[in-house]
Amino acid sequence: MAKSVLGIIGGSGLYDLPGLENKRVEAISSPWGEPSSPVHLGEIGGVPVAFIPRHGAGHVHSPSTINYRANIDVLKRAGVTDLISVSACGSLREDLPPGTFVIVDQFIDRTYGREVSFFGSGCVAHVALADPVSPGLASRVEAAAKAEDIPHARGGTYLVMEGPRFSTRAESFLYRTWGCSVIGMTNMPEAKLAREAELCYATVAMVTDFDCWHEDHTDVDISDILRVMKANTEKAARLVARVAADFPEEHEPCPLGSDRALENAIITAPGQRDPALLAKLDAIAGRVLNRE
Questions:
Q1: For a tag on the chain, would you pick the N or C end, based on fewer CB atoms within 10 A?
Q2: Which of 210, 201, 202, 203 is nearest to 183 (CA)?
Q3: Percent of the chain having pLDDT more than 70?
Q4: Which of 209, 219, 221, 224 is catalytic?
């Protein structure tokens, strides 16, 4: 059984990870390009932790220009087994007001123009994504939220839009009819890539505002978002610390098989695989490729 390494991707407002002990910052090279930032490595409660701010220090990367593949790749190279994504989002439901942390379990991907897979011509793979969130990891996040008395909801659908603009009112009303709970710009293709990398993945969607469907929030106000975001960031740091404090030393197998997602997923015949692409997949798919 593998040793647990907890990965954290910080969203808007979470550019550092308070409480990270024995901290060191390491620039891990990736064949997929430059990640958002060097990886912050250390321990919380004795558990190895790897943190990367999704938008980079100082928020220099927009949702559409983040190199999601490089971010996932360097975290995999850092040994991460379980990955918690922390994201600011808008609410599409009256019962999920600003300040609520939503532990989502589904996504609808409305992004476009982003690199969405590690695989492609020369090595084709199809991974299952019916249930994109690892339930065991989500349960640990939920337990931590309860322990820290953080307002939260378990379950819900995250609508991922392209951005960087906010939604039109017509779009906001449409997404509500789809049964979506929150709306944001960053968790796809991140969740897809985490599954391809055989990482257990869970999202904490931190509500900063009601989207523009709400009669009291007819326009999204950045100043209001920033105010709530500051309070959310403090709660997120407590949440992560609690998850780490209670995290097992040995990685717990995912009941969905997230950590074995590439079993039988690569369908390109070994003799037809592109050596250059295989070299780039050394961290992501090495477990499977190296045994063939």
A1: C
A2: 210
A3: 97
A4: 209
Catalytic hit among 131, 211, 221, 224: 211
CA distances from 55 to 9, 37, 250 (A): 10, 8, 30
Cβ-based neighbours of 13, under 8 Å, separated by 6 or more: 88, 226, 229, 230, 232, 233, 236
Alpha-carbon distance of 189 to 110, in angstroms, equals 10
Q: What is the pTM of this model?
A: 0.96
Is residue 147 a contact partner of residue 238, using CB atoms and an 8 Å limit?
no
Give the C-alpha separation, 79 to 52, whole Å: 13
CA-to-CA separations, 72 to 35, 48, 59, 116, 143, in angstroms, rounded: 8, 17, 18, 12, 25
Look up residue 138 and give its amino acid.
A
Q: Which two tokens stand for residue 113?
A: 């123009």
Distance of CA 154 to CAs 9, 124, 139, 150, 219, Å? 19, 34, 9, 12, 27
Q: Which of 130, 100, 235 is nearest to 191 (CA)?
A: 130
Chain centre to alpha carbon of residue 220: 23
- Known catalytic residue at 221: no
Q: How many other CB atoms sit within 10 Å of the CB of residue 278?
A: 16
For residue 211, indicate whether it is catalytic. yes
Q: Cβ–Cβ contacts within 10 Å for residue 43, how many?
A: 15
How remote is the C-alpha of 228 from its chain's centroid?
A: 20
147-181 pLDDT, tens digit per residue, is 999 999 999 999 999 989 999 999 999 999 999 99
Classified as helix, coil or strand, 184 is strand
